[in-house]
């Protein structure tokens, strides 16, 4: 079989495979979160999230609500160097992001069934 025929057969099979994948995965909320940052944020988003009273008060002072937290959990960055992942019960992750051009940083206690925002810092520079 000549090289051109092999490439044509390969390309045809590849295109058919892509179409089948698009058919089966189209419309579903599938994602490919392979990096540690994306996996951690997805894990936290999948749990019931509570906010400590101190953090809630700080959000209210800056005219923010829980949608700001959800935005950071969607687009933020986990600072693994500042996080405490060695605990057995609830790992503590520090997450940094930006809301309305304001840098925001908070720590999340990520337990097995729930996540709690324990501290929050909003830079107003």
End-to-end C-alpha gap: 68 Å
**CATH architecture descriptor of the largest domain:** 2-Layer Sandwich
Radius of gyration using CA atoms only: 21 Å
Q: What is the β-strand count?
A: 5
Instruction: Determine the CATH topology of the largest domain.
Output: YaeB-like fold
| Class inferred from helices and paired strands | alpha+beta
Query: Which CATH class of the largest domain?
Result: Alpha Beta
Q: Helical percent range?
A: 40-55%
Shape: elongated
The domain tally reads 2
Mean pLDDT: 89
Could you spell the SSE succession in H and E letters? HHEHHEEEE
Low-confidence stretches: none
Strand content: 25-35%
Enumerate how many helices there are, as a single number.
4
How can the largest sheet be summarized?
5 strands, mixed
- What is the strand arrangement across the widest sheet? 1-5-4-3-2
Protein name: DUF4258 domain-containing protein
Keywords: Membrane, Transmembrane, Transmembrane helix
Characterization of the model:
- The protein has a 5-stranded mixed sheet.
- The mean pLDDT is 89.
- The protein has 2 domains: 1-30; 36-122, YaeB-like fold.
- The chain has helices spanning 3-25, 36-45, 53-61, 66-75; strands at 48-51, 77-84, 91-99, 102-110, 114-122.
- With 125 residues, it is α+β, with helices and mostly antiparallel strands.
């Amino acid at each position: 079989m000549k090289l051109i025929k092999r490439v044509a057969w390969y390309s045809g099979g590849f295109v058919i495979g892509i179409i089948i994948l698009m058919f089966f995965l189209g419309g579903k909320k599938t994602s490919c979160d392979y990096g540690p940052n994306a996996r951690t944020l997805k894990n936290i988003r999948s749990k019931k999230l509570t906010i400590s009273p101190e953090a809630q008060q700080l959000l209210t002072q800056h005219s923010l609500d829980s949608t700001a937290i959800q935005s950071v959990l969607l687009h933020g960055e986990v600072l693994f160097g500042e996080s405490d992942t060695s605990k057995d019960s609830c790992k503590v992750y520090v997450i940094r992001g930006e809301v309305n051009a304001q840098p925001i940083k908070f720590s999340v206690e990520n337990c097995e069934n729930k996540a709690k925002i324990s501290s929050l810092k909003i830079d107003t520079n």
